[in-house]
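Re: that backbone. Tokens:
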């Protein structure tokens, strides 16, 4: 945990600069940081600024920080990641990783090879998505949640939304059989489409191309979805 991510509800009503930690974050500060009274830790407020938190009270159950905020979070990458919904165990890792890398928006959508059961996963219930994103923000010393949305119907998404989504942007589709190699170090707003395990079916690729998306390749090797995301983002930005 390179940053302690604070919620507005963590701050005491009686003293607005005093934050109260319990649970996972309090345990991490005590066991990993081995914090003591007077120590200063890197903190940030959800969707707000970053600063320092001085330990002013602690015991076995709680910890309080006196918080000073003075720095803006790092800028996001100029990229929207449009990702065919992966299997839930992979999605957890991807959520944390792409948040750490700094994407500004994630769109999870359906495609022919996405199993219907994925949409009924427990990851969409409770706070699990928020927890994985929080882990990514803590790792990166960031505070700003990426925008996340879901599209259950591929055809409607590609026909009605993708043309507007990619307008005046670099729109790329990661596709191993593409003739064009993925560009490097782009300087413009980008929408990156990545398919499911097994890839898009031909009609889906045709529909994306018709909507203004260009297929690009990383070479002949077939990569796992989560690996392809990391490599493509690293290459592009």
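Recovered sequence:
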């Amino acid at each position: 945990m390179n940053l302690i991510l604070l919620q507005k509800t963590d701050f005491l009503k009686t003293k607005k600069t005093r934050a109260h930690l319990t649970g996972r974050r309090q345990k991490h500060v005590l066991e990993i940081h081995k914090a003591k009274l007077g120590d200063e830790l890197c903190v940030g407020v959800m969707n707000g600024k970053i600063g320092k938190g001085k330990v002013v009270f602690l015991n076995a159950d709680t910890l309080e920080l006196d918080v000073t905020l003075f720095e803006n979070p790092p800028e996001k990458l100029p990229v929207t990641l449009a990702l065919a919904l992966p299997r839930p165990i992979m999605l957890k890792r991807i959520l944390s990783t792409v948040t750490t890398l700094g994407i500004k928006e994630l769109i999870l959508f359906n495609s022919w090879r996405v199993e219907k059961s994925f949409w009924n996963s427990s990851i969409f219930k409770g706070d699990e998505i928020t927890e994985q994103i929080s882990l990514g923000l803590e790792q990166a010393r960031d505070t700003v949640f990426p925008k996340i949305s879901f599209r259950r119907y591929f055809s409607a998404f590609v026909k009605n939304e993708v043309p507007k989504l990619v307008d005046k942007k670099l729109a790329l589709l990661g596709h191993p059989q593409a003739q064009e190699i993925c560009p490097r170090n782009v300087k413009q707003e980008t929408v990156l489409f990545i398919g499911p395990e097994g890839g898009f079916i031909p009609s889906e690729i045709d529909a994306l191309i018709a909507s203004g998306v260009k297929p690009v390749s990383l070479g002949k090797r077939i990569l796992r979805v989560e690996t392809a995301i990391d490599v493509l983002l690293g290459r592009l930005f």
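The mean pLDDT is 96. The chain has two domains: 4-71, 77-236.
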